[in-house]
Design goal:
By secondary structure, the protein is α+β, with helices and mostly antiparallel strands. It is built from six helices and 15 strands. The chain binds uracil (URA). Uracil (URA) is lined by residues 100-101, 104, 181-184, 197.
Length: 227
């Protein structure tokens, strides 16, 4: 990979910014000052140091964020701040895996890996996403069978959901699709309304209970396998 591209990937600004950092003699490759932005480096072998700090290159990064309400899953943050702002990583290639509404909390995956994101959101294998749902009134149990068979929502026949009642007004709801406002619309169908929504699980990966709302962590290989 070219040295200026490597620096841009690692959050040192545009290619032009990176060229300047290199021309300013701030970049060492294997302990030698390197002034050629086009220098080809081997990211697995060469040690790159910028202004005294070694840069650990990761081809892809994977984060779990405990998303707070008030943040949106979009790069356009004109109305609300983007959830990406909560991740202290200067990489410019981060994307959010699927969407949570602005008032929804909980497990949000953030990655640089577009293929992974696609597989989790739209892959052939159905990956269940589990939500903790609080409702405004008692849930009418007659709807459980319908939800678990698959209801019609607009023009869509939904795939079967799983319902685990926690008490009269709260449940764990697992769904494998991610249609627009899906859980809220499913609860409308059941003549009810969502008061609070938090995503708890994606596949077998649970929201880390040590993460306060707004905190995030990097995923381990084991976490990725759990998805
Ligand atoms: N379903 C919803 O209605 N909202 C979310 O944020 C996620 C699923």
């Amino acid at each position: 990979m070219r040295l200026d591209k490597f620096l841009a990937h690692n959050g040192f600004g545009s290619r032009k910014d990176c060229k300047k950092i290199i021309k300013d003699n701030l970049v060492l490759v294997n302990n030698e000052v390197e002034v050629n932005p086009g220098k080809i480096i081997d990211v697995k072998v060469d040690v790159i140091n910028v202004d005294g700090f070694d840069i650990n290159y990761k081809e892809q990064v994977y984060y779990m964020l405990n998303k707070p309400a008030g943040y949106i899953c979009s790069h356009d943050d004109s109305l609300y701040p983007s959830a990406l702002l909560l991740i202290e990583d200067l990489r410019t290639d981060l994307i959010m895996v699927g969407r949570l509404d602005v008032d929804t909390e909980g497990l949000l995956l953030i990655t640089s890996d577009g293929k992974f994101s696609h597989q989790v959101s739209h892959g052939k294998k159905d990956i269940l996403k589990q939500y903790y749902v609080e409702l405004v009134k008692d849930f009418d149990l007659k709807y459980i069978k319908e939800l678990e068979a698959g209801i019609m929502l607009g023009d869509d026949l939904l795939k079967p959901a799983k319902v685990e009642m926690l008490d009269e007004k709260s449940m764990l709801l697992s769904i494998s699709q991610g249609k627009y406002h899906q859980v809220k619309r499913m609860m409308h169908y059941c003549d009810n309304e969502v008061l609070f929504l938090r995503r708890e699980k994606i596949g077998n990966l649970s929201l880390d209970e040590n993460l306060e709302v707004g905190e995030y962590k990097e995923l381990s290989l084991k976490d990725l396998e759990a998805i």
